[in-house]
What does this fold into?
Amino acid sequence: MTAVYITQAGSTLSVQHQHFQITHKEKLYQSVPVTQVTQIILFCICQLSRPAVKLASSRQIPIYYISRQGQELGSCEPQSKRAKYRSQQLKRLQNPEFARAFAESITWAKMHNQSILLQQLHVSSSTFEPEVYRAFFKLLIDDLPMAYSLDELQGYNVTAESFYYPALGSLLPFELGFRWRNLQNPADIINRMLNLGNTLLHQQTSAFVQVLGLDADISHLHIPSQHQKPLVCDLMSEFRPMLVDELAVNLAKSRIITARDIIPENGSGALLSPRTLQTFIQHWEEKLQTLVTHPHAGTVSYRHCLELQVREYIACVLGDVQHYRPLVWPFPKNNTAGDASDLEAEYPMLVKM
It folds into this structure.
C-alpha cells in the first residue's frame, strides 16, 4: 500500500482512469492506482480537484496537512461509522488495572528500545561507554512497577528522555548541533528529522487505528493535544526508537543528510530544504518497507508490524490475550545482562534481516 506525498508548491492532485495523479506546471510527476493509496500527505499549498477529494472520501483515504517545520496542521479524515470497538475501549478505560498494565508495558518497551539503540550505536564510537547507559535504563525499568500513578509513569518517561537524547547526541558529529530534544522551532538537522519522522509515524499509526475500528481519543497514558491523537501516541511509543530515531541517526552518520541541508528561517529555527524533505520521505518509506523477522508473523515489513501491534491492542481490549505484548529489539549478542533470556522468552522480539 502507498502513501502519496505532495511536496512541491503549486502542484495539483487529480484523478484520471482510477489513478491519483500529481502534476506540476502541467507536467505529470506521479500516477498511483487508487486501490493502492492509503493516505495523502500534503507539505505545501496545492490544488486538490473535487473528484480527487470525493474519491478519497469514498474510499476512506485520509488527507493530512504538514507544515514545513514537520508538524501536523490538520487532517481531512472521512466521516466513518462509529468505531467498532469503542464500547469495549470505554469499558477498559474504567479498569485501573488494565490501564496501568498497558501504560507500564508501552513505557517499558520504549525505554528498552532506546537502550538497545544506544548499545547498537556504541560500536562506531570509541568514547561511548554502553555500560553506563545500560545501567541507567535498567535502573529506571526496574523501578517502573513502583510508580503509583499514570502521571508518575509519564515522569519516568520524561526522565528517560532527558538522559537518552543527550546520549544519542554524543554519538553524532558535534557540528550537527544536536544536544537535546527540541520540539519547537529547532535550528539543527537532527531535531528537524525527529519532528518530521514522529509526525509521519503518527499518521501511519493513525491510519491503522481508524481502519481497524478503534476510537483514537480513548487512551491510557497520553492525553489529547491539538493535532496528536492520544491512543495513536500510546501505540507508536515502542516504535519511535526503532523507526524514527534510528533513521535520523543513520541518515546523519552516513552524511545522506547533513547540517547544510537546512534553511534558516526567521522565528522558525530552520527548515528542511525541498530536496532534503524528498530525501527524508524516500528513506522513511524504505524504512517502513524494511523486512524484519516477527516472532509470530514471520517475515514482515515494519509497516506491517505497526498494523500487527494495533491488532495486538484490540486483542488485549477484547480479552483474547492476557496483556499487551509490545514489540522490542533483542539484546545485542555481546550483552551480559542476566535477565536477557527471560525477557526474550516473554516478549516478542524483532530480528533485523
Summary: The chain has two domains: 2-61, 86-352.
